[in-house]
Amino acid sequence: MENQRTKLTKKLFKEAMIDLLEKKSLYDITVTELCQKAELNRSTFYKYYENVYDVFADIEHELILANEECLKNINDNDQDAITKPLCRLLSIVKENTKIYKLLFNNHISEEISKNIMNAPIMFFKEKLETLNKGPASDADYVFMYFFSGSLEIIKKWISSGTKETPEHIATLIYNLAAKSLGIYEDNK
């Protein structure tokens, strides 16, 4: 169990990492730069990390855990089954706007982006499959349609400064998906 000082120190390194990632690639960040930005010394850095990638791995791990935790115990099959977890995810995105902005603007490697987004993607794919009224062979296409559109709405929300509430964006995404599914079902 980490004590308060350790948590604070690691938080300072992670915040410094995110600030540096806004200006340069992860692969171009040095321990010296990170320490200067965090206003901590190198010996403190090496007490907790071996290299700058370990700091980013901590950030990645925290986001993955937050995503997985917010999706737990959601078993309903109505509108709330989609909007509740989506709203929770959007709240996490809003709390971590800087890192998600970097993630969505490809300032971080595609592999890392996939790791962070995997749990939410799989969760919503399973939810959508239970709602899919079309042929099973179309399921992947339908999911990609909803996922791509939803992702673009979230990107726009982030780039606009997350002015709307997570609830508003979750409801917007749900309503657009529900209307599209209704049209898709009518035309099959």
Keywords:
single chain; 188 residues; Arc Repressor Mutant, subunit A; Tetracycline Repressor, domain 2; 9 helices
Tally of helical runs: 9
SSE string: HHHHHHHHH
DSSP strand content:
under 5%
Helix content: over 70%
Radius of gyration: 19 Å
CATH topology of the largest domain: Tetracycline Repressor, domain 2
> Architecture of the largest domain in CATH?
Orthogonal Bundle
User: What is the name of the CATH superfamily of the largest domain?
Assistant: Tetracycline Repressor, domain 2
- The assigned structural class equals mainly alpha
Shape: elongated
Unreliable runs: none
Number of domains: 2
The CA-CA distance between the termini, in Å, is 55 Å
**Regarding quaternary structure, how should these chains be classified?**
single chain
Supply the CATH class of the largest domain.
Answer: Mainly Alpha
Q: Quick check: average pLDDT?
A: 82
Can you summarize the main beta sheet? Answer: none
Total DSSP E strands: 0
Written overview of the protein:
- The chain has 188 residues and is an all-alpha fold.
- It has 2 domains: 4-50, Arc Repressor Mutant, subunit A, CATH 1.10.10; 64-186, Tetracycline Repressor, domain 2 (Orthogonal Bundle), CATH 1.10.357.
- The chain is 76% helix and 0% strand.
- The protein has helices spanning 4-21, 31-38, 42-48, 52-71, 79-95, 97-104, 110-131, 139-159, 166-186.
- The chain is elongated, with a radius of gyration of 19 Å.
